[in-house]
## 1
Amino acid sequence: MVEHSYNLYLLLSAILFTIGAIGVITRRNGIIVFMCIELMLNAANLAFISATGIQKALEGMIFVFFVMTVAAAEAAVGLAIFVMIFRLKGTISVDEMNLLKG
Amino acid sequence: MAEIVFKWIVFFIASILSIFSSVMMVTRKNPVHSALWLVVTFISLAVLYFLLNATFIAISQVIVYAGAIMMLFLFVIMLIHLEKGPEEIGKMTVSRIFAVVLTVLLFVEILVGVYFYRAWTVKPEPMPFGDPKTVGKLLYTKYLFPFEIASVLLLVGIIGAVVLAKRRKM
């Protein structure tokens, strides 16, 4: 039965997490790096939901709810920071972000 | 029996679609196309959540991720004219290949973790049903305090975004 094959869901979660990690490492555009981080968060959410099925406890879904809350706050603040950096430097390439370098 | 076959078909379509669209998301040059492919990924993940009986999470996935967060991303991309990114894609530098190899190693590590997790040997049991009533009851009784903390976090996020994005007067 499909709702019992939690291993497939964990496998899919691992694949999506890896794709997101490859994007974070290889892309230079700050917004796309940010979107890849959102994809990794979603892969972790999928693992949480399958763990809900394995453990038969609803706490996984509560956790996913809080992850979504944090992701929303993170997106708001992070994109505001990107707008600031773009105003300051005229680019959002992650290679150019060296403002904190001493 | 027909229902089981139907669920398998939905599972395979949704999972293949999510993998395909996330690969497209990572490889597109234009950030707007990337964001739209990411919306496709989020919606196919919502379908998978429905298959796992997590209806509340699936609905909030569509509303919060595919609706609110991606709207914010598209808005910022169009606000700062990023359609021509600072990007050179397809150039295979040594560091890039090394990074991909490292990440694939990470994937193998996760696979080993999944393999040795007891999920392979656990007796299959039906998924608990996470409809809005059940999840909401749990949120408002046992997890009331974390829920309130999350609302404070959202308030802080709003204030932080406004303060950061405000144009400074010189």
## 2
Amino acid sequence: MHLLRAASRLQDFYILSIRASLGIFRRPFYLRETIEQMDYAGSGSFFIVFLVSLFIGMALSLQISAELSALGLKMYTGRIVGMAIIREIGPVAIALSFAGRVGSGITSEIGSMTLGHQVDIMRVHGINPIKKLVTPRVISALVMLPVLTVIGDAISILGGYYISVFVSHQSSSFYWSQIKEIMDFKNILSGIVKPFIFGYLIACVSCYMGLSTSGGAEGLRKSTTAAVVISTILIIVSDFVLTRILFYFLGMSI
Amino acid sequence: MIEFRNVTIAYNDHVVLNNVSFTADFFEKIAILGGSGGGKTTILRLILGLVRPDEGNIFINGQDITVLSESQLRQPRMKFSIVFQEGALFDSKNVRENVAFCLREYSNYSEEEIERRVRDLLKILGIEEAIDLMPEELSGGMQRRVAIARSLAGCEPKMMLYDEATTGLDPLTAANICALINELSSGEPPQRRGFILVTHKVLDAARVADRYLYLENGTIAFDGDIESLKKTDDPELREFINELYVAKRV
């Protein structure tokens, strides 16, 4: 019985994700809602992304330069920090912050609308809640998470620069030359593709959990927690899968 | 016409409605009575196709709505409008935007026309001065009035569905809402706009309804007018409508 229910929920999730994606290309376009969501998800998340990225960049730089200096290779700190940030840590860390802030916000907002019958009111008056509520949030996550990731990567690299140059006393120009070297198509592509997928997953999971909320305040708590937990797991699992796929398509050997 | 034919629905293995059958015309003034969690609101949700029954069929003007997709349900839903308990107003929108919500979504009216219609509706409902207020600034009675205004703004429903429209209101405000319900359903059948009022407040039901359904253990234990309701032999129902006798003595 539980298995059947889980299968049915999974099917509902797929249907919602597909309808929300198709809604991007179909009228009516809820431009105002989309801009509001982009503002909430983008500029509203900037401060948290700034802090997370800065400290991750600095901590990573500290760890790597300490390890490399034991081998006499600390001048390569910039290369390793940049590579790790752009390809892996930046997209994942910012997606996790995004899921915590934006994903939980989406679930609690849509969940309270579901419990307050506002979603029912939309349906009664012929307004498609997926089009009105889910699609703008999916578009917002698809646009804003990659933008935040690019900004976060830059801040992390600056954090790494501060530690490498002012704490570890490495050459500033060599740090930047290393960063320039790793800014090739393959690395940038791996860093840009991931946030699109993560953003899509976070938005769909959060909206689905919000729309399927039931059981009052306790149900809302459960939905919000589940949205963040499921998004976190999906981000980490899909990161591995995407890395493997990108390695294959970009011809990168292990 | 609404027809429930052997409708059964359960939530998480708890049977809410069990083999329920009844018919109702759009012009009827019906009160559905019953205890909390007895399936009263579920009947309204089933009429609107917001939930689907596990078994049985629901016909609106002869069309089985249990087999319709979400987009196909739009037509039968246009025959109704619903006022939920607490109003279900959009918290982030003021009264004007709440009432204009459906007009903006589905009409080609200019902003001036929408403003005029919203003001007219609020005037009829006696809350024109609240046009710029947010839902949190409204009293319970005003919230219900705004919800009624919104339900009438977008369409011309043949039947209103009220979900606990007077619950949580003081007696005076509840009486005002009942008067408003009567006013909106004035006229003679079959042109009259009818309603289904779901409530556990028997006195409020008696103020507005002509026909009473009583739900007990997921089935309709009573279906009749006020006179037969008062003469019922069902001890549980007699207990439930005790309010009527007390009010009479007072």
